[in-house]
């Protein structure tokens, strides 16, 4: 399946909650979820009077998988490959899945505040603006490990998108397992993230149940 290239606000409206796909816009009154609290398309219900249907267990599992996949900006095959990689690891499969998604390089760049969204972070990585332990890395799915240093390379720190993101970061609270130096546009993974320290609202067990059928 190819990557979705349409309006990302439709994805948030489809899931009925903010997925934070457009950076700072999601925190303003321009957010589509705030303005239109109903699904997109001709079957949406702007009046709010349509009777809510009871969803099947499969529908709940599918929606949860779609939501998490869209949050991290992965294709169906990428998401499934990530699940297959963690399903035999020790511990809870759902928690392992969320940890693996968080440790992707594009997500780390986003978490460190070098880009306003995961999509923008992916572009920074692909265009060779990001270093891991001093080496340029252009693979968004690269798995970052504890104690790795991630840094915006050289002159790339002057990019408008990086500067604006770092300015916004100064007003936000970063996750506990990452330390960031905004002056040098660098950060380090201080420890392995746990499910409790990953700020994504999801019922990952539903995804495990879906893929275990």
Write the layout of secondary structure elements.
Elements lengths: L7 H8 L16 H4 L21 H16 L3 H11 L6 H10 L2 H7 L6 H9 L3 E3 L2 E2 L12 E4 L7 H10 L8 E4 L4 E4 L14 H8 L2
Antiparallel strand pairs: 1-2, 1-3, 3-5, 4-5
The portion of residues forming beta strands comes to 5-15%
Question: What's the quaternary structure here?
Answer: single chain
Mean pLDDT: 84
- The first-to-last residue Cα distance is 21 Å
What can you tell me about this protein's structure?
The protein is of the alpha+beta class. It contains nine helices and five strands. It has helices at residues 8-15, 32-35, 57-72, 76-86, 93-102, 105-111, 118-126, 160-169, 204-211, and strands at 130-132, 135-136, 149-152, 178-181, 186-189. It has a five-stranded antiparallel beta sheet with strand order 2-1-3-5-4, covered by helices on one side. Helix 5 packs across helix 9. 30% of the residues are buried.
List keywords for this structure.
single chain; 39% helix; alpha+beta; 9 helices; 8% strand; 213 residues; five-stranded antiparallel beta sheet
């Amino acid at each position: 399946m190819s990557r979705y290239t349409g309006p990302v606000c439709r994805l948030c409206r489809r899931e009925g909650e903010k997925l934070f796909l457009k950076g700072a816009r999601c925190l303003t009154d321009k957010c589509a979820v705030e303005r239109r609290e109903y699904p997109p398309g001709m079957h949406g219900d702007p009046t709010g009077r349509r009777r809510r249907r009871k969803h099947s267990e499969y529908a709940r599992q599918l929606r949860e998988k779609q939501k998490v996949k869209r949050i991290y900006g992965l294709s169906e095959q990428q998401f499934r490959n990530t699940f297959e990689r963690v399903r035999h690891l020790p511990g809870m499969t759902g928690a392992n899945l969320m940890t693996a998604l968080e440790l992707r390089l594009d997500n780390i760049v986003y978490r460190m505040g070098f880009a306003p969204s995961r999509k923008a972070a992916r572009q920074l990585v692909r265009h060779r603006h990001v270093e891991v332990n001093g080496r340029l890395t252009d693979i968004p799915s690269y798995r970052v490990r504890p104690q790795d240093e991630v840094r915006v390379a050289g002159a790339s720190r002057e990019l408008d998108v990086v500067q604006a993101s770092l300015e916004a970061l100064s007003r936000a609270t970063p996750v506990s397992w990452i330390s960031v130096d905004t002056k040098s546009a660098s950060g380090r993974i201080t420890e392995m993230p746990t499910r409790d320290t990953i700020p994504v609202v999801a019922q990952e067990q539903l995804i495990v149940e879906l893929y275990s059928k």
